[in-house]
Amino acid sequence: MSDLRIEQIEAVDGPIEMAVAGNAAAGRPTLVLVHGIQGTRRIWDPLIPVLALDWRVIAPNLRGRGGSFVLADPDRYGIADFADDLAAVMDNITGNVVLVGWSMGGLVALEYVQRYGLERIAGLILASTSACLHAEGLEPAIWFRGKTPEALVEEARDRATRLKLADTAKNIAVAGAWLSAAQVDYRPVLDRIDVPALVLHGSADSECPLDHGRALAAGLTTSRLEVLTGCGHVPMAEQPDAVARSLANFAAGCEVASPS
């Protein structure tokens, strides 16, 4: 990834580190890739070299991971806090964005829409995620079972091994994020989304069952659902070529005509 650069911006609560690759092109949105609850920007490493051939790509480390700031209070790692970090990233981008959220990153993307609107967003991709992890009528998406930060720290270690996450968030960030993620419900937000949307979901996702992807797509009138056959919760690692192709094809449909 010779073209990849590590940059840093200032958010309200501290510095945010982000990987930047590719170059901006007229009419082409920037792809902003948001990691999950335990992941870091490194989860996107299999995709970035391919996407950066044609697109500017930014993968931030939200608070509590990599070179971004760390806070000692688990209550400072709520989904709304991550959305504020994302807003700082967005403020440093010129032009429109295709916002891509994987797992918890999908919740962060929906929180961003709820708090900041859609003005800069040309398209939305939600992968392996849900609008409500404990929605009635669906098998719950249970990433952790602990009820306290201490219990969640122990679970986080085991889950990182199970999902083969080589680079992970600080345990306190994971614990605080789950206590928030388990409570949020973005189903009312879906009606407000009028930009093109793509829902990507693995058919064998045990962390967030496929019915969550189906329900999410059904709630988004501008979306289409793409099911990755045989894929689990981390499609970027399991089917990177297919995912990169899906992201690029979708982003191409979000281009705007250059002024004449």
From TrEMBL:
Q: Name one Pfam family in it.
A: Abhydrolase_6
- AB hydrolase-1 domain residues: 31-245
**What are the recorded GO MF terms, alphabetically?**
hydrolase activity
Entries under InterPro entries matching the protein: AB_hydrolase_1, AB_hydrolase_fold, AB_hydrolase_sf
The keyword Hydrolase is annotated on this UniProt entry = yes
Does the record's keyword annotation contain Acetylation?
no
Q: Which domain of life is it from?
A: Bacteria
Q: Which UniProt keywords apply?
A: Hydrolase
- Its name, as the record gives it, is Alpha/beta hydrolase
What organism does the UniProt record list as the source?
Meridianimarinicoccus marinus
